[in-house]
Specification:
338 residues, alpha+beta, 5-stranded mixed beta sheet, 11 helices
Length: 338
């Protein structure tokens, strides 16, 4: 059942010291992209080898698990369940039968890169709507780099990860400060999350990085999110304008967020597990995370909103970059609500 999907060795952790260095790496990664192709589903054909034949393109394409599942949903199939016991030729026959009856038109996104031991022209990374308008990671990074010129020259990369779904990174942009003794030293950062495969919106915002435990605390106050945009008619100039406008008040936003963080150390909670369960439900995150969050909480059981937020962001470090981002967002909303 897995013949049609390939996986790169992801997530890939990048280790660039500066934003300029990271932008160069992202631009090189973007250069692997092949031209997008908008095609009717009815014109696609799957081979017994698990690759996809695309009209007017020589050879055939492998695809990532994400793209495979997008393709399956387009023709009404839950891939893991439907093809659990199917042979490769049976998978191809069923998919081709469904393709022939399909009426939808999709945009195929692909790269020239393929996994080891896979014979293909390239790898399909996404099937999205015809009006989907991605913005390359290198372009986003370049806009941020330019926006930070004159604002802060010390643009050290705290972390950066690329997966089949997203590229996300955190850039230090502020001096260290100490809201209070319990919080300890923190530094202001800008976080970026982008997706070119239809997984998530482009988001750029403020993050507070607590140095004592290497956690990232996102304080989601009004104005903390500088850019939040869906990939539909996405205008790079508009992104540039929003960043420039948001960075004008960066020191004020940092100080406000730091005060919220300090204030959370005095807000007691009666039942930490109940707080975690409620927050996960409100954030539409899986309740399976309760056990890892509570294990993190018990390592430093501080019965305050700050203690709970620390547990959330500590547990997030053991999750995928996508779940980590969502948990950090949830921690910020939790702090701001206090």
């Amino acid at each position: 059942m897995n013949a049609a999907a390939v996986s790169f060795p992801l997530p890939r952790e990048h280790h660039d010291d500066t934003l300029a260095g990271l932008v160069g790496r992202l631009e090189a990664q973007d250069a692997l992209a092949l031209p997008d192709r908008t095609v009717p589903l009815s014109k696609l054909r799957m081979t017994a080898g698990g690759t996809l034949i695309v009209p007017a393109v020589q050879g055939s394409f492998a695809f990532t698990e994400w793209a495979r599942d997008q393709l399956a949903r387009q023709v009404g199939v839950n891939w893991p369940k439907f093809f659990e016991h199917a042979k490769p030729n049976e998978v191809a026959e069923e998919m081709n039968r469904r393709f022939s009856r399909a009426t939808e038109v999709v945009k195929l996104r692909s790269v020239s890169r393929v996994s080891e031991n896979v014979e293909a022209t390239g790898t399909i990374t996404a099937l999205v709507g015809p009006d989907y308008s991605p913005i390359a990671d290198g372009l986003v990074g370049g806009v941020l780099r330019d926006a930070l010129l004159g604002v802060n020259e010390d643009t050290k990369i705290i972390r950066c990860t690329t997966t089949d779904l997203t590229t996300s990174y955190v850039v230090r942009v502020g001096e260290k400060l100490t809201p209070n003794a319990e919080v300890g030293a923190i530094e202001a950062c800008i976080y970026v999350r982008n997706s070119g495969v239809g997984y998530a919106k482009l988001v750029v915002g403020l993050l507070l990085h607590r140095l004592a435990c290497k956690n990232g605390l996102i304080v989601s106050l009004p104005g903390a999110t500088l850019v939040r945009a869906v990939h539909r008619g996405l205008d790079l100039d508009r992104v540039r304008e929003r960043l420039a406008e948001g960075l004008k008040g960066l020191p004020e936003r940092v100080n406000t967020s730091a005060k919220v963080l300090a204030g959370s150390t005095t807000v007691e909670v009666a039942n930490a597990e109940l707080e975690v369960r409620d927050l996960l439900r409100e954030s539409r995150l899986p309740l399976r995370l309760v056990s890892s969050v509570m294990a993190s909480y018990l390592r430093e059981p501080v019965r305050t909103r700050f203690g709970v937020s620390q547990a959330l962001t500590l547990a997030a470090q053991g999750e995928s970059p996508e779940v980590r981002f969502s948990l950090e967002q949830a921690a910020g909303l939790y702090l701001a609500a206090g």
